[in-house]
Write a structure and sequence with these properties.
This protein is an alpha/beta fold and 697 residues long. Strand 2 (18-24) and strand 3 (27-33) form a beta hairpin. The N and C termini lie far apart (58 Å). Bound molecules: iron/sulfur cluster.
């Protein structure tokens, strides 16, 4: 038997753990953490091992599929790409360029073959109707980074391994494996932090991260912005801000502080459940800590005041002297830069959505508007769709309406490896070859890592002659669309050449050969101050008071005074280490054991509604209703309901045999597409008012 070992980073989440893969007679047989990876040091989570399931999944699409009646037929690649290009071009020829929409799902960011090749295709398609999972996830982070620092990806990252004190809001890195904070083995890193300093978690649920924290503060869902304003007021009361590092480089600080000092935080305790005295103590801890950082993630960015939350976090880190400081929050000066010349800084409001008039950001429209753009008749109506590695029917608010809208499209082309709840409506499905057959460099998550690292990933095995890589599909689609439209298409170089060009542009001195000689990756050391030199605002200053963000304080003030809807609970999401957004539910290793799709409620809330633990309940919101099994959860505060995202696998026509067995219900059948974080346009999914009662047969 021919046995060998291959080293490669895991492509499934932000942690980019190094994996050691055992290959026998050319077939992948076993996976474990790569002990020699200087960053992940052998860490692997259950999803890493599930790569074995993904590679062997009998449900996975291996050849291009073309719709034939209610089913699909396999066709060849040349025919599939040509027909896809013709379909997309025909929609645009008949109804205009914007009649074609594009949706880009979360996995794209993890694959060089997508992230590096999509921009050329999008430019060629010339549509303004581009949507992605970013606007149901992290737009507030990007919008704030662009407004304050001049570039959407100039994101300060917690210096997790050196900080002495961290305040974590709306994030559960132990389950999510870190997010906008690439930190493999994050549980160990947080435990070390708690041992040398303090880890304070603010979350409506006693999450897996809260369980290892020095302190957990249960907060009412949606009250984080008010909490952060109060924290800022208490910090300001402790004396002059520490701003020596920023002399002459701050714009609008007085305006911002005046607005925040004047903000009425009297409703804090009633609204958030957290006493003022506790907030004052946290401010003293933040002020006194030798190094500290405030970090907030998806639980904040997907709520109604996501942008205010992320702006306040930047200001708290700035005013406490921890922005761009060791042990605080610093951008990673990655060896392949995703900021600077030639990158998309993230402009805003260059055009608006046709139906609701929502502003564009970074070339995209809020995905909460996708269904109405398809369903609303008139000039500019969307009639064709291209999706890349996405499942918007489960990932986007108003999922049922979007499901029906996509079913009625004239043309739908999907680049995907599954017939999922969305791609079941496609006219063509183009499945990329395994990522293990491709060269890969993680552009995004090396740039958001808590250390400066670099790792090139070589193919584990050769791509089959009858397979196409992601980049070849996108390049082929661009060529076919151009041919059908009578335009020119410039073929893209292969990934190795693209990666080499990126390294050269970064100017670190590292070459492809250096990375190839280091199969476990290279550790270039801890984060170092660099934000001041990299600011991309017009005047080189941090804009502390962007108008459109400051304006949103009035909406927050009104919300703080509003009364709770009678009988409502507030719904939040729940992440599990064995799940990954709306996919990975077809992997046997990840769905075995007890079901994870249940709704969780506090026992008192169950009793008050006459609902038994384990019963089936009906849950409705202003936007929809679902039925799901419920569990009593002592880790949840009363008044809060908790449901994981990405389930609802019971729809006909999918090829997800394992996922169907753990169908659950979709959070996004409840989420309201009209509920947005106004400054960014990100969907407000978290803190939804819901009413729950026993389900009746
Ligand atoms: S933590 Fe993320 S990168 Fe690491 S093994 Fe799990 S899924 Fe893969």
């Amino acid at each position: 038997m021919d046995t060998r070992t291959h080293f490669r980073a895991c492509p499934l989440c932000e942690a980019i753990c190094g994996l050691e893969m055992r290959v026998e007679d050319g077939a992948l047989r076993a996976i474990r953490g790569d002990l020699a990876d200087p960053f992940s040091r052998g860490h692997v989570c259950p999803k890493g091992n599930a790569i074995l399931d993904l590679e062997a999944d009998p449900d996975r699409v291996r050849r291009p599929l073309r719709r034939r009646g209610r089913d699909f037929e396999e066709i060849g690649w040349d025919e599939a790409l040509a027909e896809a290009g013709e379909r997309l071009a025909a929609v645009q020829a008949a109804h205009g360029a914007d009649a074609l929409a594009v949706y880009v799902g979360n996995p794209n960011v993890h694959h060089f073959g997508h992230i590096a090749y999509l921009p050329a295709l999008l430019r060629a398609l010339r549509t303004r109707n581009v949507f992605s999972a970013s606007s149901v996830d992290q737009w507030p982070h990007q919008v704030v980074a662009r407004a304050m620092y001049g570039h959407q990806f100039l994101l300060p990252i917690p210096d997790l391994d050196r900080t002495q004190w961290i305040l974590v809001l709306g994030a559960n890195p132990v389950a999510s494996n870190g997010s906008l904070m690439t930190a493999p083995g994050v549980a160990r890193r947080l435990e070390d932090l708690a041992a040398r300093g303090r880890l304070v978690v603010v979350d409506p649920r006693r999450t897996e991260t809260a369980a290892i924290a020095s302190e957990h503060l249960p907060i009412r869902p949606g009250a984080d912005a008010l909490f952060l304003v109060a924290l800022m007021q208490e910090l300001l009361a402790l004396g002059a801000p520490r701003l020596a590092h920023w002399d002459g480089r701050l714009r609008g600080l007085d305006t911002a502080l005046e607005a925040l000092r004047a903000f009425d935080t009297a409703p804090l305790e009633a609204r958030s459940g957290i006493p003022r005295a506790t907030v004052a103590r946290l401010a003293r801890e933040l002020h006194a800590a030798p190094s500290a950082v405030v970090y907030g993630r998806m639980g904040l960015s997907t709520q109604a005041f996501g942008t205010l939350c992320q702006w306040l976090i930047q200001l708290l880190n700035l005013l406490s002297g921890n922005l761009d400081a060791e042990g605080g929050a610093l951008p990673n000066d990655a060896v392949i830069p995703i900021t600077g010349p030639g990158t998309s800084r993230g402009q805003r409001d260059r055009w608006r959505s046709r139906v609701r008039g929502l502003p564009e950001f970074a070339g995209e429209l809020p995905v909460a508007a996708l269904a109405e753009e398809i369903l609303t008749t008139g000039p500019g109506q969307v009639r064709g769709l291209l999706t890349c590695a996405g499942n918007p029917v489960l990932s986007v608010p108003g999922g049922r309406a979007l499901d029906a809208a996509i079913a009625g499209l004239d043309s739908y082309v999907a680049v995907d490896i599954y017939v999922n709840e969305t791609t079941r409506h496609a006219h063509l499905i183009l499945p990329p070859a395994s990522p293990l057959t491709q060269w890969h460099y993680d552009l995004i998550f090396n740039a958001f890592a808590v250390r400066r690292v670099a790792r090139l990933n070589a193919p584990l095995s050769a791509q089959g002659a009858d397979e196409r890589a992601d980049w070849q599909i996108l390049d082929g689609l661009g060529a076919a669309h151009a041919r059908a439209s009578g335009r020119e298409w410039r073929a893209q170089p292969d990934p190795r050449r693209m990666i080499a060009a990126g390294l050269e542009r970064g100017g670190s001195g590292l070459t492809l050969a250096d990375l190839e000689a280091a199969p476990h990756g290279i550790d270039l050391g801890p984060l170092r101050p660099n934000l001041r030199e990299r600011l991309e605002t017009e005047d080189g200053c941090i804009d502390c008071a962007p108008d459109f963000i400051l304006d949103d304080l009035a909406r927050l003030a009104a919300d703080a005074r509003a009364t709770e809807p009678a009988g409502a609970l507030r719904l939040i999401g729940r992440r599990h280490v064995r799940s990954n957004n709306s996919w990975m539910h077809n992997a046997p290793r990840l769905v075995k054991g007890k079901p994870r799709h249940h709704l969780h409620m506090h026992a008192d809330d169950l009793a008050a509604r006459g609902i038994a633990d384990g019963a089936r309940v009906r849950m409705r919101s202003a936007a929809g209703a679902i039925e799901v099994e419920v569990r009593a959860d002592p880790d949840l505060a009363p008044g809060v309901a908790c449901l994981p995202h990405g389930f609802g696998h019971d729809r006909p026509g999918t090829r997800l045999s394992r996922a169907r067995a753990v169908a659950g219900a979709s959070y996004n059948d409840l989420a309201d597409p009209m509920a947005l974080d106004v400054p960014s346009g990100n969907a407000a999914l978290n803190g939804l008012a819901v009413w729950i009662e026993p389900a009746h047969d």
